[in-house]
UniProtKB/TrEMBL annotation:
Similarity remark: Belongs to the TatA/E family.
Cell location: Cell membrane
Leader peptide range in chain numbering: none
InterPro entries xref list: TatA/B/E (IPR003369), TatA/E (IPR006312)
Protein's name in the database: Sec-independent protein translocase protein TatA
Source species: Pseudomarimonas salicorniae
Main location: membrane
Subunit field text: The Tat system comprises two distinct complexes: a TatABC complex, containing multiple copies of TatA, TatB and TatC subunits, and a separate TatA complex, containing only TatA subunits. Substrates initially bind to the TatABC complex, which probably triggers association of the separate TatA complex to form the active translocon.
Length: 72
């Protein structure tokens, strides 16, 4: 009663295909794929932005240290 056999899943899949049709399912799959690609692209852009901020702050810290040592 707790688990489903392969036949249960086949019947569920068949009912879904009959209700929505293959064209709508194909479009939904394409939309889902585009959403995942967009999400990954956003994550990568955020990481690139953070790396840029870290690099610029480390460069500023180095130049401040050099100015302190030059003024002594």
């Amino acid at each position: 009663m707790g688990t489903f056999s392969i036949w249960h899943w086949i019947v569920v899949l068949l009912v879904i295909v009959l209700l929505f049709g293959t064209k709508k399912l194909r479009n939904a799959g394409g939309d889902l794929g585009a959403a995942i690609r967009s999400f990954k692209k956003g994550l990568n852009e955020g990481q690139d932005e953070q790396q840029g901020k870290l690099e610029s702050s480390s460069t500023e810290a180095k130049s401040a240290d050099q100015q302190k040592s030059a003024s002594k």
